[in-house]
Amino acid sequence: MAPDTLPVNRCDQPPWVIASHLFNRNPLPIEIQGVRRAHRSLFARLGRLEDPKARVRAFREYMALVFQVGKWRKESSPLGRRSLRNSYLRFLRGWMQDASSPEGAVLKGWVESRFGILPTYHKEIIRRISSGAWTTYVEEKMSSRFHNNAIYIQLDLLFEFCQWALERLVVPGETHITLYRGVNSFDEHQIVDRIDKHTVLMRLNNLASFSSDRSIADCFGDTILTVQVPVAKVAFFNSLLATHPLKGEGEYLVIGGEYRVTASYF
Fold this sequence. Notes:
Structural class: alpha+beta
Radius of gyration: 18 Å
Oligomer: single chain
Number of strands: 8
């Protein structure tokens, strides 16, 4: 199989720690280095606001100001329009439609870059770095049509806003959230060890979708994975923004690695 992690990342915790099942049992806060400091005016403003809608509005206004998100239609040049269309919202939409899309590759590439965890699946199982599956993933994540308008920095800010909201507003004081995923096979998420009849140690893809609603997970497979996900490893959740592509599905985007998973079979 492909190596699990890179030797370095851009977080305050090393990649092999973030990816380990021991971290998931006893998590620590994760911060992408320099993001909150570089954008401290945004987080200071968020801290002064009481109304949840006002906080969302402040975040969206900041992204529109700094990255011109949503303003591509007003750009006169074709090159400018293509550049400005690359926003965090576009990549969330692409993920929702197909996690193995080029947009999905960019999101997995962002996880690889920031957290140092390599993907295990993109269109097919990635068995080694020299494989065709790895080459396809790299070509898609590195496509020049996606890497303008500082898309990784936009995603950094989305992650830090997500963490800010979880820590202060959604699950203050909590270390884990119970989430569910329906699957029909274990191609994307590989079993590392079987603990008992229903419990396995599983290596999740470096970015994976889960639901907070078990009945929704039932719609996506005949095996339901139940996972205690560290709050620190949630990259996005369905009620973070007032309007976004994943609203209504109870969806959470989770940073991968090795997790203790309970599997229920139907």
